[in-house]
From TrEMBL:
EC number in record: 1.1.1.37
Residues the record lists as binding substrate: 82, 88, 120, 151
Pfam families found in the cross-reference section: Ldh_1_C, Ldh_1_N
Binding residues for NAD(+): 7-12, 32, 95, 118-120
Family: Belongs to the LDH/MDH superfamily. MDH type 3 family.
GO BP, one annotated term: tricarboxylic acid cycle
Cross-referenced Gene3D superfamilies: Lactate dehydrogenase/glycoside hydrolase, family 4, C-terminal (3.90.110.10), NAD(P)-binding Rossmann-like Domain (3.40.50.720)
Protein name, as recorded: Malate dehydrogenase
Amino acid sequence: MKVTVVGAGAVGASCAEYIAIKNFASEVIILDIKEGFAEGKAMDLMQTASLNGFDTKITGSTNDYSKTADSDICVITSGIPRKPGMTREELIGINAGIVKMVSTSLIEHSPNTIIIVVSNPMDTMTYLVHKATGLPKNRIIGMGGALDSARFKYRLAEALGAPISDVDGMVIGGHSDKGMVPLTRLATRNSVPVSEFISEERLEQVLQDTKVGGATLTGLLGTSAWYAPGAAVSSMVQAIACDTKKIFPCSTLLEGEYGLHDLCIGVPVILGKNGIESIVEINLSTSEKAHMQESAIGVSATNKLLTL
Ligand SMILES: NC(=O)C1=CN([C@@H]2O[C@H](COP(=O)(O)OP(=O)(O)OC[C@H]3O[C@@H](n4cnc5c(N)ncnc54)[C@H](O)[C@@H]3O)[C@@H](O)[C@H]2O)C=CC1
Ligand SMILES: O=C([O-])CC(=O)C(=O)O
């Protein structure tokens, strides 16, 4: 199993580290445009191998895509992150050009690969990769919902005073401050609806805190987060590499599912060796449907800013 991560920055390096620590891939290539940067990150990570007990071989490359040839999975984390006060959508001007160039370079060398898009604004970048590469929809997957759901579970556990392992919940919709749709109605503590334990007001606070999870961290860190993003990507890579068929909310091209067309947005999917094995259509309440519709309008408006 060969995995390429483009962008050796905060998220790319975290993602490569978690993939290596989980020890399911034989090879991870990290590629960056900055001279020597990916090689340095790869060497530093390889020097953790004997300490962290993994055999994954991590190699760095400065923009040499021949090193990425025949990758099974490619992750795109190249591009700029936001600064405090910015939205993810404001990154489109710089990141669209980078993501377009990177995705076409990747498939030149790995025509059968599965691409996971991380760069922001992620739903629009995922849509752009569709337009730029023409790959089948099961092989282009946007990462957002896995991270947003992890943050939702963190906030739920905090509100419930429960261990995170006792909590389950999912966030669908666009990966944006306004567009996320945390499914509070379906969240549970060990199979019991969370509404049995906390008030509607507290649950609303959990929902709001979840939606601004990325912005909150950006305010604290001065740039956006990387540990949870890296862990979220690595979990998706593992599900594909190990053909687990686990459900993750992922950004995927919708062609009528959830009543939506011609955009990529977060919905539950089954991940396996073919990438997206299938989209899971769950019955949403009237208000969840309305939030999803509103979220889709936001994503489509950002898509319109692309020059395709
Ligand atoms: N979808 C999600 O849930 C998340 C998305 N992000 C996004 O991921 C992206 C990366 O974030 P960070 O790693 O924090 O940024 P960073 O600045 O630490 O790393 C980005 C790396 O991309 C490299 N790069 C730029 N242009 C390139 C090109 N043409 N080819 C190869 N490499 C190139 C840079 O040299 C840099 O090393 C941002 O757009 C950020 O908004 C971050 C966290 C979560
Ligand atoms: O907040 C950001 O800009 C980065 C990101 O997508 C996240 O951490 O959710």
